[in-house]
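DATA SHEET
Item: assembly model
Revision: 1
Owner: S.N.
Input lines:
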Amino acid sequence: MNAPDSLFGPSRLQTLACGRCGEEHDPHRLQTVCIACGGPLLARYDLESPGLPDLAGWRARPRIPFRLPELLPLRAGAETPSLGEGNTPLVEFPRVAAELGAGRFLVKDESRNPGHAFKARGMAVAVARAAELGARTVALPTAGNAGVAAAAYGARHGLAVQVALPRETPAPIRTACRALGARVQEVEGSIAEAGAWIAERAEREGWFVLATLREPYRLEGKKLMGYELLDELGRLPEVILYPTGGGTGLIGMARAFDEMEALGWTGPERPRFVAVQTEGCAPLVRAFEEGLDHAPPWEDPAPTRAFGLRVPAALGDFLMLDILRRGGGTARAVPEAALTEAGEDFARRFGMWLGPEAAACLAAARQLAGEGWFRPADTVVLFQTGSPFVYLG
Ligand SMILES: Cc1ncc(COP(=O)(O)O)c(C=O)c1O
């Protein structure tokens, strides 16, 4: 049962600060990117004033979707916007840990979310916030799963939803978007061309754009994955394998870890993130390897079974590169054949059918294990970000 989000007191949202130039923006108006430099806006909360729970107090709270509403942007007393997202299982595979040379290996199964992907978490917060700040229509380009999530939460909040997606997006995703009441535009090319289609029309049509990091609050929903890991493990894992497109999950979890340290719940330790992409579209991996601070767009991204990873350019590239480097993480690109093989092997031997994005992470883990990258005491968490079922057809 959903508890009202007023249960634990109002939001402590203070400001929206540009992740690039630091310029602050009014958090109580609908905002997209920084008007000064075009950078992504990041929510900042009052973590100083007394009244926030300590770690034990927080863990004693009921596991409602929004268990720390003080550190979410939503107004207290608003209708709870949940469709049951979050609190996903963390499933342990001891034999895989042994094969990788790590201490523990767990899969965070985000395919159990509404719409069968982790995208629900970001949209649960972003659409609710857009609705309370007065948006009427939300629009976004998507590799697929985010479109389904936006359609679902748009329906939940009575907003119209316009989705633009690549023409080759699998039929179940297009069908689900339409079933949930969204208008769907199919576009030639990748999510980059879908983004251009939306951008050309948004102002004229009065659409509020929910594209990755072009509004501040999808990150706030995604950060709850980081809080859940702390709750379930009792501490942070040493390694997080994350299939990376626009990077909301990676950046969102890193924000959670910073907040936890500021709250005194954890120390300065950080998980080593492994950002995983495919060889046919690996802008972040290339930039990481070349020591760049930004990732130049990937020309001509190759088709892949991992639709969510076909993202040639990400607005938050500089944030991700910084997170990877500061935390001792890395970035890996895997060949298409390796992700297919890794996924098939895992399904047959361990009973969990991974989505192709998660299978790419497993293929990357095998690469890293071959180099002795994992340490015997490492707890490794792999994010199964979406269900393979939505890609059938
Ligand atoms: C299943 C799946 N995994 C991973 C990603 C990449 O997520 P992000 O853009 O947050 O990096 C996507 C994005 O579409 C996805 O659908």
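QC remark: The CA atoms of residues 102 and 376 lie 5 Å apart.
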